[in-house]
Amino acid sequence: MTSPYGAPQLTLTARLNTSAVDSRRGVVRLHPSAIAALGIREWDAVSLTGSRTTAAVAGMADDQVPVGTILLDDVTLSNAGLREGTAVLVNSVTVYGARTVTLSGSSLATQSLSPITLRQALLGKVMTVGDAVSLLPRDLGPGTSTSAASQALASAVGISWTSELLTVTGVDPDAPVSVQPNTLVTWGTGVPHTAQSSQAERVSVATPEIQVEELKGAQPQAAKLTEWLKLALDEPHLLQSLGAGTNLGVLVSGPAGVGKVTLVRAVCAGRRLVELDGPEVGALAPENRLKAVASAVATVRDGGGVLLITDVDALLPATAEPVAALILGELRTAVATDGVVLIATTAAPDQLDARLRAPDLCDRELGLPLPDAATRKALLEALLRHVPTGDLDIDEIASRTPGFVVADLAALLREAALRAASRASTDGQPPELNQEDLLGALTVIRPLSRSASSEVAVGSITLDDVGDMAQAKQALTEAVLWPLQHPDTFARLGVEPPRGVLLYGPPGCGKTFVVRALASTGQLSVHAVKGSELMDKWVGSSEKAVRELFRRARDSAPSLVFLDEVDALAPRRGQSFDSGVGDRVVAALLTELDGIEPLRDVVVLGATNRPDLIDPALLRPGRLERLVFVEPPDAEARLEILRTAGKSIPLSADVDLDEVAAGLDGYSAADCVALLREAALTAMRRSIDAADVTAADLAAARQTVRPSLDPLQVDALRAFGEEL
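Structure tokens predicted for Conserved ATPase (724 residues):
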């Protein structure tokens, strides 16, 4: 197929590109045969036409990507006016070197970024007027965060520079252009291209992708929102007769990808819906931001209906700018209008301007929780309804996907489908999704809720890999795994599972290691922090860090909050000289542990070798109520540790691990592991071609690795548990 001008063109299906290498860098991926059909080479530019036209650089996709598919990131999808799964017209296009590029952006970006830094970030990117562009440089991929561009951007904008979006308000020449080293890049104040505005503000009669009845796990929230809309829009006279106002503003919160916008669209089926994209509008210059909101408000007031603002925290963050008051005024006008309802969605309610929750704005809230195992099973069954499948164990996949939201499950199935299609292409059989495809995809897909930087990678170790520690493993299994694996038993017996566990014992006895093994065994995410890391000299910062830690844990449940060196985080109150910071942190911890908001599928583990320094209030029932003493290893335990740690070390026939373990009194678990490591190094010093580790190597290593356990400290720790 050719365009009217004779250039080859293809109609392809748009799919979201989840690759971090290409994310928001203006790169699309095409099958090699599609690149050949367009008559272009890799890294040439192509034009993309949906409801508007943009341009991007075309890279080669993996052979597993279907021929008729084009992979685009979320910004490029928006620039082309597309949604995932829709058709896009792809042409080769001539790109000119830009003489000038004019941009608008947030006040943070406009005040912090110089034209030189801007040009450095945009170098090589292809753009048209009205496009949204990120600051992520084309050459910035995993492992290259030390590039000059990223350093300059991080220094100027701060940690949020990777999420900043700018709007192209003008280019010279007026055509698709690429930023060159001699391009003049400037900030402007002009109104963006109308096509961009139409993308930010979308007006339609809602025709949802799924019906309300298909909203797995969100039926109570859907019923409540349906009832509110019915009273406010269809039967306002009932409220008026009772002297109540008919105004309605709703804040819908929940983890990213849980289906907040899908829920609203499904409930608003058949109603007039005006959508405003919060991140797109929030990336505009302040005056243009206000104009976009005012335009959307005028549109919804003119014909009535629902004004939906997605990711409203990007438009109205907690760090409010002067323009925020004007935007709130416009929204207040919309809510006060008869026949108009305001609905806003957010994945970060604590990062939202508090004034949005005022009684005359979003005074009602709906929360969407993470799906539990039963809901994940129902979601998987719904997503697989029209997919040819082999022998699948949906229950196993549901149990192995804690923390997955519907978007994660959809991504999981896409990855599994790629594997199935690749296999079918090789063996010539009709494609069919089987259990191995899904299990393989699980090794690649990481849920959105587990993207927090504080989450620990637990690896593949399990409790079976932990040498001895039988008592500690049994106590942790009962306190952590049983409530998750057998919730019906706890409900039947009418008891609440313990909320927290304190692991205490001498240094090096495996407290952190057993937590990793526990998390891997139970498929849990671990949010770990050392006590000293949360302490901050600024008033309120430490308490905020505690709240943020527990918020991330709730969002990625089932999860563990691991407080290492908890004695530094929660010392006895009234005995510090830090202006009360320690006391306030202890109060924040107590509030999170047994406050009003419950910890659903979240267990708190503390670890310390100085339990006597911890505030006693933290050890009461309902808090860190289970005390587990991690005993120093005895001879039998040391043997088990040596066998486990020595699985990958070739030992000669003259090594008797029973004899070695018996002679290691005073050695901790870490000491035993260090002894084997030093013995292997000793063998290498003896001969770089050494094939195994001998008894002589172990004897020599003992001269270097000395026992670290203090008998007096061990006795004091054991006495602490007996006193309690």
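The CA atoms of residues 634 and 665 lie 8 Å apart.
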